[in-house]
Amino acid sequence: MTVAEQLRLEQTAFVAAVAGKLNDFLATRQSVMSAISQDIDPLMGSISNLVTGGKRLRALMCYWGWRGAGGEPAAAEVVTAGSALELFQAAALIHDDIIDRSDTRRGGPSVHRRFSQLHVDQGWALDSERFGHAAAILTGDLCLSFSEETFTDIGQAAASGSQARLIFNLMRAEVMAGQYLDILEEVAGPMRDRAGAVSRAQSIIRFKSAKYSTEHPLALGGALAGASDELLRGYSAFALPLGEAFQLRDDVLGVFGDPVTTGKPAGDDLREGKRTVLVAFALDQASPEESRFLDAKLGSPDLTDTDVEEIRRIIVDCGALQATEVLIEEFGRAAFAELDLLPLEDLPKTALRKLAEATVSRAA
């Protein structure tokens, strides 16, 4: 069997095992929650919907970190860890969509919009939007609880004080810190020094997304398999620039992506007021008049398609898009160079290379 064939079979088996673990876990929790009240079913349905499908990037990074450190194929520990990461990701998406006022997720209504619509459909009292936000926050909190419960099920390898537990805890704390820095930049950015905007935006993506998308999941898998400190450092040297390239690509797609492919309206990041690296470059490199236009329009819920097109033109013409693409290329090059140095067997190294290639060049 070739390395490519083995990779495909092993990765397919792992993804199926994670899906099965999630289904089984949520089925048991469904019976517990339904015993409280069947009115809670929409919360469980929202969680199930979010953890069904998707790219499984974090779970796969965890798996190949495990395999690279000598872990056995499809072992229970790494399947459980992958499931915990998927539940954490779902919780983060629910809360992120509320914070960003995003109406869609993966081509359908976001969780808070689903609950707002439920309120309207049922003809309930008081404010439908407030109910939607409150219900979605609680759904995200429940999903966070499930993530922790699942991770604890790994057993001794994830116990308090273990390397895996330290990584899992740090990952969650950093995401919350990065999320706060993100919303802070939206409101404080216009009053802050423009010269530092790119640096602040890069710090945000590092802690809000890059570390928990690639670096921590890879290290988590390695730690569960007993990886040496040297290998874990090598994992980080490869995965952190990869995660930064991943988020920069996401930022480009948030402005220029095809809604059919991304599942989100064109210019959604602009309506949400995202002060991304792409936007920071534009604010720094555009003319004073264009920069003022960007400041005035960012975060406007009434942003028109014409406004979006004008912002896109400014971003392209001032060189901000090109500067971002250069950064993506530099981070990607750094990641691949570090991957070449990792002392891994052909199978995990090939798998990580393919994940990295898909991450950097993705269209959705």
Structure characterization notes:
- It is a single chain.
- By secondary structure, the chain is mainly α.
- It has a single domain (3-361), classed as Farnesyl Diphosphate Synthase (Orthogonal Bundle).
- The chain is 76% helix and 1% strand.
- It has a two-stranded antiparallel sheet.
- A hairpin with a 2-residue loop joins β1 (104-105) and β2 (108-109).
- α3 (57-68) packs across α8 (197-224) and α4 runs antiparallel to α6.
- It is globular.
- It starts with a helix and ends with a helix.
- 44% of the residues are buried.
Task: Give me some keywords for this one.
364 residues, mainly alpha, 16 helices, Farnesyl Diphosphate Synthase, two-stranded antiparallel sheet
- CATH level-1 class: Mainly Alpha
Mean pLDDT: 94
CATH architecture annotation: Orthogonal Bundle
Low-confidence stretches: none
Supply the helix-strand structural class. mainly alpha
Largest sheet: 2 strands, antiparallel
Query: Any idea of the CATH topology?
Result: Farnesyl Diphosphate Synthase
Spatial strand order of the main sheet: 1-2
